[in-house]
């Protein structure tokens, strides 16, 4: 049975970190452009720093880190953090064996509900042009394509898709 909860304990955050590293490794293997994008935004030393400060950057009260479990096994994560005029959904990742079970949609809806409860008026996110399933999910959830909401290097801009949703 699939369940999800806010990741707050050391073991829950360790599970999220492990999922995030798996996500990064998967992106690096998708294509050369995905590798370049990942290395542009998250070279390994920077990603390690991010993982070390995950709860500070994405945890309560400014955000939310979710962990999804299949029984006792960590299978997915997703997180939210505040931006100046919105909240950004980050690192929605489902392990390959747990895909096609609606877990990413469940996590996104929970992140949206949390943002709404916090008084957020707009959600934003980005994904790769190569991640067609992610794009379909965000469109199904009512997100609209938009212009970049943060500065993006020109050499990777054409390979990303940006979304927003008014709450």
Describe this structure in words.
The structure is a single chain. By secondary structure, the chain is of the alpha+beta class. It has a single domain (2-166), classed as Aminopeptidase (3-Layer(aba) Sandwich), CATH 3.40.630. It has 7 helices and 7 strands, in the order βααααβββαβαβαβ. The chain has helices spanning 10-30, 32-41, 44-52, 54-58, 103-117, 132-140, 154-157, and strands at 2-6, 63-70, 73-82, 87-94, 122-128, 144-146, 160-166. It has a 7-stranded mixed beta sheet, with helices on both faces. Strand 4 (87-94), helix 5 (103-117) and strand 5 form a beta-alpha-beta unit. Helix 1 packs across helix 2 (32-41). The longest helix has 21 residues, at 10-30. The mean pLDDT is 95.
**Tally of individual helices:** 7
CATH class: Alpha Beta
What is the gyration radius calculated from CA atoms?
Answer: 15 Å
Lateral strand order in the biggest sheet: 1-2-3-4-5-7-6
Mean pLDDT comes to: 95
CATH architecture: 3-Layer(aba) Sandwich
Note the main sheet.
Answer: 7 strands, mixed
Order of helices and strands: EHHHHEEEHEHEHE
For the record, the count of structural domains works out to 1
- Uncertain segments are none
Relative strand content: 25-35%
Helical content band: 40-55%
Structural category is alpha+beta
Q: N-to-C terminal Cα separation, in Å? A: 30 Å
CATH homology superfamily: Gcn5-related N-acetyltransferase (GNAT)
According to CATH, what is the topology? Aminopeptidase
Shape: globular
* Strand elements, count: 7
């Amino acid at each position: 049975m699939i369940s999800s909860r806010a990741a707050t304990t050391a073991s829950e955050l360790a599970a999220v970190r492990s999922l995030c590293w798996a996500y990064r490794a998967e992106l690096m293997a998708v294509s050369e452009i995905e590798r370049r994008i990942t290395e542009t935004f998250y070279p390994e030393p920077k990603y390690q720093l991010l993982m070390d400060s995950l709860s500070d950057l994405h945890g309560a009260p400014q955000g939310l880190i979710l962990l999804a479990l299949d029984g006792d096994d960590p299978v997915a994560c997703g997180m939210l953090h505040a931006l100046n005029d919105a909240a950004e959904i980050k690192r929605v990742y489902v392990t390959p064996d747990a895909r096609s079970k609606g877990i990413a949609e469940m996590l996104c809806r929970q992140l949206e509900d949390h943002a709404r409860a916090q008084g957020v008026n707009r959600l934003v996110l980005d994904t790769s042009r190569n991640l067609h399933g992610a794009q379909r999910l965000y469109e199904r959830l009512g997100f609209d394509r938009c212009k970049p909401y943060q500065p993006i290097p020109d050499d990777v801009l054409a390979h990303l898709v940006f979304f927003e949703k008014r709450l």
